[in-house]
Design brief:
This is Retropepsins domain-containing protein. The protein is mainly beta. Helices cover 14% and strands 45% of the residues.
Length: 137
Amino acid sequence: HINIIIVIQDSFQIQTVALINSDVQMNCIQEGLILTKFFEKPKQKLSTANGENLSIKFKISDVHICNVGSCIKQTFILVKDLDIGIILGQLFLEVIKPFKVKNEGIITKIFQRKILFAFNQKPITKEINLFKNIIYV
């Protein structure tokens, strides 16, 4: 989990916690966190890991994930009954590549500026090593 600021169309901002999950293809945001005026109808269809169709009614495409003065533009799908408010998936990880996973967080360089997405709590070494293996395979 990391702390981030979400900015939508330069008019809506929320500071929140996000889960980074390399198993998730799209970035997800829980319905109810964002005002409906920012919703759009998605064109893509998604499925769960076991192949079931996932009902996605809305997406938000003009979202900036901000940390220490640097912002990264991303698209999110809205998901009902999400356990955590925001999940940053493979789309986010692709943008911040190359990056390093350290005990303090995920470190990347964007626009020649070093950025640390700090973990909220000290990670378990086993989980960090597993995450490193997934990223570098």
